[in-house]
């Protein structure tokens, strides 16, 4: 909001565009809330998103255990594992008391499918409770999976999941079928353009 007001003001004052860009950077540097990026990533997808987001926002990246106490907004990126956001509980534990939390989940499930959000929300509601709920905004992004890089435990979990899907589901959803079809391969849905709504939200906060 502040940035837009700035542009309108400068436009009306007849500023040149190069000066305008410079002015806008100063405006953000002075008035933007302190944004800190935190991530927990097992195989790299959340890390890729987090580092790109921090680059775009020129934000500090912090370890979950040492989030600066003066952070206004903490943007946390975490991978989904059996419906649980990896590292979220730890992030909530170390979140400064007055900071807003922007949670970005990274999973294989398609964020365009609304039911997937509901499933994730059931789990996050167990961790994000009470007054923190009012200070939290959640976004969902798509990650990837390289079966050759998975730990033995994770390989076994995926094998079991595919076995259950093959056995018990007669009418499979497109997503379940895709999980079966891509079993054992390398899939990468990481798409930096999907960061734009998160970026817009934080910039306009
Ligand atoms: C054992 C296992 C369980 C997973 N469970 C889910 C899940 O419940 N929902 C989902 O959308 N993706 C799930 N995934 C996919 C991961 O979320 C995906 O690979 C993501 O990109 C991981 O992010 P990271 O590499 O940053 O940890 C699972 C992956 C593994 C290996």
Task: Report a brief summary of the structure.
This protein is α/β, with parallel strands linked by helices and 205 residues long.
List keywords for this structure.
205 residues; alpha/beta; Rossmann fold; 3 domains; six-stranded mixed β-sheet; two-stranded antiparallel sheet; 8 strands; 20% strand; globular; binds flavin mononucleotide
Structural features, described:
The chain has 205 residues and is α/β, with parallel strands linked by helices. The chain has three domains: 1-31, no CATH class; 34-143 and 189-205, Rossmann fold, CATH 3.40.50.360; 145-187, no CATH class. 45% of the residues lie in helices and 20% in strands. The chain contains eight helices and eight strands; from the N terminus they run ααβαβββαβαββααβα. The chain has helices at 2-12, 17-31, 45-57, 88-94, 114-127, 152-168, 174-181, 196-203, and strands at 35-40, 60-61, 73-81, 84-85, 100-107, 136-142, 144-146, 186-188. The strands form two sheets. Strands 1, 2, 3, 4, 5 and 6 form a six-stranded mixed β-sheet that branches. The protein has a two-stranded antiparallel sheet with strand order 7-8. Helix 5 (114-127) links the parallel strand 5 and strand 6 (136-142). The radius of gyration is 20 Å and the shape is globular. It starts with a helix and ends with a helix. Mean pLDDT is 90; it is low at 1-7. It binds flavin mononucleotide (FMN). Flavin mononucleotide binds at residues 41-47, 79-83, 86, 106-109, 143-145, 150, 154, 157-158.
